[in-house]
Amino acid sequence: GYERSNSKGMFFFVNGRWVKDKLIHFAVTRGYHSHLLKGKYPAVALHYQTDPSLIDVNVHPAKNELRFQYESEVQGFIALSIREALRSGAWAEMPQSSLHQLQSSPPSPEYRPPSPGFIPATSVTMPTASAATSHSTGLSVSSSPSPEYRPPSPAKASSFAASEPELFSGFGEETLVKDDVSWSQLNYIGAFAKCYLLFEAGNRLLAVDQHAFHERILYERFTNDPKLLKQKQRLLVPEEVELPAEQVAFLSERAELFFGMGFEYTRSTDTTVELTGIPTILKNRDPAELLDLASRSSMSEFDGTNIEGLAQNILATFACHAAVRSGEELGPNELTALLAEASSVDFFHNCPHGRRVFRWWDVAQVAKWFDR
What we know:
By secondary structure, this protein is of the alpha+beta class. It is 33% helix and 19% strand. The protein has 11 helices and 13 strands. It has a 4-stranded mixed beta sheet, with no helix packed on it. A 4-stranded antiparallel beta sheet has the order 7-8-9-13. The protein has a 3-stranded antiparallel beta sheet with strand order 10-12-11.
C-alpha cells in the first residue's frame, strides 16, 4: 500500500539473526519487479529459515553478512515467494465472475475497429498454482493484508508520519486497497481527458488509467504466453537504424534474446543495424523507434547477469507500445474488448513500470470535495 524512496524499510532475518545481505536484497527487489516505480523501495520484514549448515556466517566480523551454499536457488525462491504473495493478496482481488455489459449507445458510423493492441483472449495460457508452495525451505511472507484491512484514517496517517515522514507516503483516503466487486457490478459512466475510464459500483466511484491498465494486461499476456511474441512480421523493405555504438554492441551481444522476442536484424556497422522483422503484435508501431527503446531501456537496467530482468524490461516496452494510448478515444466495442482482456489475466493492478492503475472513492469521500 505504500513505498519508500530508500531501502531503509527493508529488514532481513536468517534463522532469527538480523543480516544485511546483498543476495537477499536483490531477491526482494526481483520479487517486487514490475510492482514498484523505478527508484522506489518496499517496506519488508523477511524471515528466512534454512539448514544452518548451508550458510556461512563468518563472512564479516559483525556476522551480519552471509554466504549461501546455493545462492541462485535461494534468490529465486525468495523472489518467487514474494511475487506470489503480492499477486494473491486481498488488496489485489477483483472477482471475474462475469463481464460488465456496457450501458452505452451503439457505436457511431465513424467508430473504428479495435486497434491491433487488442489480442483475442482465447490464446491465453492461465498461470498455474504457486510453485513456491513446493519448496521445503521455510519463508514467512506477510505482504498481503487481511480482507478486513483498510488504510489508516487521515488523522492516524498524520500521526504516524510525524515520526516517519516517508512510511505512509502512499496511503490516503483514495488509496486502492481491495477490489471486492466484479465487472458485472460496474456501470460505465464515461471517460475523462480520453485517458481515465470512470465506473460506478454501488456507492463507490472507480477511475482507471486506460493506458496503464491495458499495458499491464498485455505484459501479463506476453509473460504467460510467449507464443504471442513468436509471430514475426517481415518488413517489406529493411530499415537501417542508426544507434550509439554501445547500443549496437548490446544488440549484437543479446541477439538471441531479441530474436526470440520477434525482432530480426543484422549488424551493419558499429553504429547501424539493419532491421528486417518485428513482432507482429507491434506491426503498426514505428519499428526503428521500438528497437531503439527496447534496447536502450534494457541497457540501462541490465547488470550483466540478470537475464530474466532484461527479458522483463523488453516485454514491458512491448506492452507499453501495443497498449491503447492516453488520448485515444475508446468506443463501446473497444472498451468491452479491454474488459474482456482484463478477465483473461490474473493481475492488472499496476502497470509493468509500477504505476497505479485504479483509484476508488466512496460516496462520502466524493461528498467532501463539495463540503457536504
